[in-house]
């Protein structure tokens, strides 16, 4: 795989500082039952990196110490982690809202038969990857049969009330198949809702459109195809300064499977640790003694991906075009 950091770290992206920490995004590990081209985490079935029990306990401690209201759990497929359900239970008991970033097909994996019921009982918000509403496009990007399994998983969630009752939010995630910006979010959401309802009887709450970041597996593919520089030009030419106040890194800290801290999931994959009270590689334990508010955010050229066009974050578009 070709490294992208050397192509990104010399940047003219604007300086940013942290606001109040409201979201702890935790990557429980890189094991996944899928292997997708666009995946910036390089997750897959053969990955073995998983957060240990001590760091799972530190997540709980940090949520309480910092009064954080949202735990955003990701991976890989985070549900495959042996402590996933324990962590969700602990956060729920503290009154912390929980997001599960789910690839849908994991709900059908052996041993996960009760997973959907577990999520519903804890009112976990499911943010589910579905890169298109057509079978051909999804299977081309994610593998043969993935679309059919995703539809089956969505029907299971709908049957439990997801997308139908206010307490059970079900959001879908779209990302382009190649080096283009996502289309306008509200219009694409209308297309998704119409097509999924008419052809599959599926309902959901919101569609979140995410830009592909020029890093890791996707970035390496761009380099090998001679598309890296054109894609970066597209991101920079589409930059909008009004997105800066809404980028996710201002209120979120990303935690890797070893407990180290980053300003976002993308910086985590590039190995760019957060800045925290002068510590060279801050860790979860440091959040127990230090408030990150006001710290400088580490930026590089990939940050243009979050500020191009309508913007892109873990919560979807930042502005409406």
Structure description:
By secondary structure, the chain is an alpha/beta fold. The protein has a single domain (5-307), classed as TIM Barrel. It contains 11 helices and 10 strands. The chain has helices spanning 5-8, 53-66, 84-93, 115-121, 135-142, 146-159, 185-200, 216-224, 228-237, 265-270, 304-307; strands at residues 16-17, 23-27, 70-74, 97-102, 125-129, 170-174, 206-209, 252-255, 261-262, 296-297. It has an 8-stranded mixed beta sheet. A two-stranded antiparallel sheet has the order 1-10. Helix 4 links the parallel strand 4 (97-102) and strand 5 (125-129). The longest helix is centred in the middle third of the chain and has 16 residues, at 185-200. It is globular, with a radius of gyration of 19 Å.
Reported by name, the CATH topology is: TIM Barrel
Report strand %.
5-15%
Total domains: 1
For the record, the CATH architecture stands as: Alpha-Beta Barrel
Quote the average pLDDT: 92
Count of β-strands = 10
- Roughly what percent helix? 25-40%
Number of helices: 11
Q: Give the overall shape.
A: globular
**What structural class do helix, strand and pairing data support?**
alpha/beta
List the uncertain runs. Answer: none
State the order of secondary-structure elements, H for helix, E for strand. Answer: HEEHEHEHEHHEHEHHEEHEH
Strand order of the largest sheet: 7-6-5-4-3-2-8-9
């Amino acid at each position: 795989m070709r490294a992208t950091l050397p192509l990104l770290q010399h940047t003219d992206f604007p300086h940013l500082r942290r606001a109040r920490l409201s979201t702890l995004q935790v990557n429980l590990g890189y094991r996944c039952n899928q292997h997708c081209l666009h995946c910036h985490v390089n997750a897959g079935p053969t990955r073995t990196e998983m957060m240990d029990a001590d760091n799972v306990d530190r997540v709980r401690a940090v949520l309480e110490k910092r009064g954080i209201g949202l735990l955003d759990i990701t991976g890989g497929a985070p549900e495959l982690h042996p402590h996933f359900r324990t962590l969700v239970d602990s956060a729920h008991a503290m009154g912390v809202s929980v997001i599960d970033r789910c690839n849908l097909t994991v709900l059908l994996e052996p041993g996960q038969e009760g997973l959907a019921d577990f999520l519903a009982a804890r009112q976990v918000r499911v943010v589910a990857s579905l890169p298109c509403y057509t079978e051909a496009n999804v299977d081309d990007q994610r593998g043969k049969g993935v679309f059919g399994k995703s539809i089956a998983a969505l029907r299971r969630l709908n049957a439990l009330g997801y997308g139908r009752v206010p307490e059970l939010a079900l959001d879908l995630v779209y990302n382009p198949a190649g080096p283009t910006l996502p289309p306008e979010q509200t219009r694409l959401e209308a297309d998704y809702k119409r097509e999924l309802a008419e052809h599959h009887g599926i309902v959901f709450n919101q569609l979140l459109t995410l830009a592909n970041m020029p890093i890791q597996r996707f970035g390496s593919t761009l380099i090998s195809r001679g598309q890296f520089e054109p894609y970066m030009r597209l991101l920079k030419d589409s930059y909008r300064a009004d997105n800066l106040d809404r980028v996710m890194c201002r209120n979120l800290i990303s935690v890797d499977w070893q407990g180290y801290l980053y300003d976002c999931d993308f910086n985590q994959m590039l190995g760019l640790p957060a800045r925290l009270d002068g510590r060279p590689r801050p860790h979860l334990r440091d959040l127990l003694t230090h408030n990150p508010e006001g710290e400088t955010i580490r930026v590089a050229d990939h940050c243009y991906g979050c500020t191009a066009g309508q913007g892109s974050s873990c919560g979807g578009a930042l502005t409406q075009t």
